Amino acid sequence: MRTLKTIAAGHVCLDIIPTFLRGAPTLEAVMQPGKLVDMGPAVLSTGGSVANTGMALKRLGLPVRLMGKVGRDAFGAAVCDVFRTHDETLVKTMIVDPAVATSYTVVINPPGIDRIFLHCPGANDTFGADDVIPQLLDGMDIFHFGYPPLMRAFYTKTDELMRLFRKVKECGLTTSLDMALPDPQSPAGQADWRAILKQALPFTDIFSPSLDEIVFMLHRERGLKVREQAAEGVPMGGLIEEDVRALADELIALGVAVVMLKLGNQGAYLRVTSDETRLATCGCFDTASRTAWGGVEFFAPCFDAKVAGTTGSGDCTVAGLLAAIAKGLTPAESLRTAVAVGSASVEQPDATSGVPTWTALDARIRAGWGRETPKVAFQAKWV
Fold it and tell me: What predicted TM-score, i.e. pTM, was given to this entire model?
């Protein structure tokens, strides 16, 4: 069986991280008007779903291309140059628009002081369904789109996400969607996400939001309470398995075929529609696969990992799921792989350098890589 080819599309930005040579007691001690602060070299890296999920797929050895939108400026060139250092073909589907500025984030991170992010959404706010033309999808099998809550067109127009995914489905690709958690007070946080998802999910084959994201989007007030409790260290923000199952069933009722809910350090939960006709529309499942995937429910705890940083771990978990599906693995194997990739990613401070090759990941799992014990009980079959 051939390995399916994936496009990782959506939000992308350039992260600019100045290196501080010394610490300070407060931010005010550093950032004083008129003061010259000696700094070390700036670190440039790419961020967003395109970079994180896309590069995780690349590190796993999967055929992948990247589709983010950048300007024809120095920052846009820097983003594409970073991708080209890994593989020239990665950027063949990047969208370059001379009329917009590339999104960037300046990360102010003095030692011992909470970080400050200076962010320009730039081209991400102009990315819309019309940017994705059929020629860019030619020869690809899976279209993964990430972070619409950070892209203006997708939260100001309730039908934009639907228009994009319907277009991609009409081109014969399997569709995959990941979200981001918006600030509740921002325009994205005030958007009617239930209405957006109600239109988009019938054209979404694989949906992989985090638990706090989807609770907020479907049940705003409850979602705010979950966020508060999660910030206080309560596992899964106080939710239990019955809540997770109900959310997955609600999403399937809205039209999606495969749901993976990311549960943070508790692991991940997989639920699949039992509607064989809906599974047949996904494109990535043949008749035998539809029998194996239909109606399943699994839970996977995290693998043991020495955590160096959690940036991008959710994106890497999605990459693991897509890679397993692209290789034709069973649902149990796919969920286990997703959690393994996410667990490996946290062993390095950046988003993706902890992701191993597919062969190394498989060998580590087969060698008996230990699992963590979740703090929330799950009766669903563990994998």
Answer: 0.94
